[in-house]
Write a structure and sequence with these properties.
2 copies of one chain form a homodimer. Helix content of chain A is 31%, strand content 26%. The first copy, chain A, is of the alpha/beta class and 323 residues long. In chain A, strands 1, 2, 3, 4, 6, 7, 8, 9 and 10 form a 9-stranded mixed beta sheet that branches. In chain A, strands 13-15-16 form a 3-stranded mixed beta sheet. A two-stranded antiparallel sheet of chain A has the order 5-11. In chain A, helix 3 packs across helix 6, helix 3 packs across helix 7 and helix 6 crosses helix 7. The interface between A and B is medium-sized, with 34 and 34 residues. Strand 14 of chain A pairs parallel with strand 16 of chain B, so a sheet runs across the interface.
């Protein structure tokens, strides 16, 4: 099994510590390691090689963070077209019988016995020709994720991000799992299903891959591939999908509110203040009368955000980018 | 009349824009001018000379901010001993018949017809041998200031900082004025009253002044002068005190809450946020879900403070100083 690491994060949701030039998967904020490095570390015991698909401009950043002795192939996208094309490009790069463990590079996942168990289960199903998705057992009624309605290993439906009431009913039922963005399948099975359900993506991705040099995709070829996610393009349509539940530690770090749970605050001086996350390496931070807040300083950029509202941080990036 | 400008602020209440090395009176935050410069500008039409008393380490800072053509004498204190000694040192430096307008350097005062009227009234009374204090007509029930209980020009009592209930009754009565820290008197009258009510300060300040060279007071001499404010040492005891009410614009800028009213926010990107003061020259600031807050960034220092609690900012400085 090879590990396909998807490094396409755009870096707008954790501004200002994450930026388009330096997205969060490359930030060394977990004991000086990045999420990208932790992803490789976590999968190394289970995989005999790595494929990393990333933005062309991040290649040097990524190379600096990996051990030169590891077997790592890079595919560079000049522009992102979402996950269905990215995964297709990687599948063309390996033998069709090769099993790929597809993992986002920017999630924090516990590398424990639960992870190991889920991986073996997924690899077995992939070997049998299934497209396997990993479902996270929900721990609360999150409205920001899609859900998978499952019965054992069978997927009954993919569900859009629910409202709070629906999310609560999902949580209570016990049959709904968070859609994790992790997958496991044979390259050939994915490509066959992609060809069936999204033939234009398949066709254009094949041309783009065939024209590429040293893993670098041409800009025009890339722009010819329709944008779509693997969920919409393949998983929600294919009848070869199975789900493996994962009950270990999982955090998608999609916002400062998720970071709140896992990152230690920089030292700060707090007067009449509590329940704050402060990330401001190398700065002196004083808080007075501040509660339930996220304070982040990086270089000349500064964010103050109420806990629970950090999903809206990307709006700041949009405004900064003049959108 | 000469203007005695008192520049002894310690710079802990507006951290991080104000610091012990760069206290608030020297910050160019009002159309690129400092409060110190605004004080000189405001009093120039009424005074034929300036005496500036300041910490020795701030001499160069002050000199850079003044026009070399102005008649300004500096008295440098190696350490602060509060206002009664500082004013005494200045009084020894001028003729005893000289009228001194004593003004803090770090208040924001409207230089309008009300100011002019109060000044002429005070100068008249000073000419007659009175110690004149200026009383600000309160605009709300402030608990952070001392009050002057007055009947016309006569002072009936000096009152300590009141609790909120008392402050409200002061406001309602109309006979209570905020103690502004501005005074006007003949140098000789102040020294005579100081000699009478605080003879040790008088005596030690005289020695310190006589031993000084080019306005620089010796450290040991300075340490020999007891610390006290002009209010405690003289004004509350003397029977030569008169008060002149001042109804113009006045703001002591003693905290970020006072600054809130008079300083424009640096440009910032605010999402679902309102009623915030942002001072962060040269930084990009994003706020999400932040209300009624003060956000200040200067160099590598950062403050976030709830509006209404900025009196406690000095506690951060105390902690930084290891107190």
């Amino acid at each position: 099994m090879k590990n396909l690491v998807i490094c396409g994060g755009s870096g707008t949701r954790l501004w200002p510590i994450s930026t388009p030039e330096h997205p969060k998967q490359f930030l060394p904020i977990f004991n000086k390691k990045s999420l990208f490095q932790l992803t490789l570390e976590r999968n190394l015991p289970f995989c005999d090689g790595f494929l990393v698909i990333l933005g062309q401009k991040h290649l040097n950043l990524a190379k600096k963070q990996v051990d030169a002795s590891e077997q790592i192939d890079f595919i560079q996208e000049p522009i992102g077209r979402n996950t269905a094309p990215a995964i297709a490009l990687a599948c063309f790069a390996v033998d069709e019988e090769e099993i790929l463990l597809v993992s986002p590079s920017d999630h924090l996942i516990g590398a424990d016995k639960y992870y190991r168990k889920s991986l073996f289960e997924a690899e077995d199903l992939a070997e049998k020709g299934y497209l396997v998705t990993f479902g996270i057992l929900p721990t609360y009624a999150e409205t920001g994720y899609g859900y998978i309605y499952a019965k054992g290993e069978d997927v009954l439906a993919f569900c859009e991000k629910p409202d709070l009431k629906t999310a609560k009913s999902y949580l209570d039922s016990g049959n709904y799992l968070w859609n994790s963005g992790m997958f496991c399948f044979k390259a050939g099975v994915y490509l066959a299903e992609l060809k069936k359900y999204a033939p234009k993506i398949y066709e254009m991705a094949k041309i783009a891959y065939d024209n590429s040099t040293n893993g670098l995709i041409d800009m025009d070829d890339m722009l010819n591939i329709p944008k779509d996610s693997i969920d919409y393009a393949v998983m929600e349509k294919s009848d070869k999908v199975k789900v493996v539940p994962f009950v270990g530690k999982w955090n998608d770090l999609g916002s400062f509110d998720s970071l709140f749970e896992v990152v230690d605050s920089t030292q700060s001086i707090q007067i009449d203040s509590n329940n704050n996350l402060v990330i401001a390496e190398g700065k002196t931070v004083g808080l007075v009368g501040v509660k339930d807040s996220i304070v982040v300083a990086q270089g000349n950029n500064l964010l103050v955000c109420k806990k629970g509202e950090s999903q809206r941080v990307k709006e700041i990036c949009d405004k900064l980018a003049g959108k």
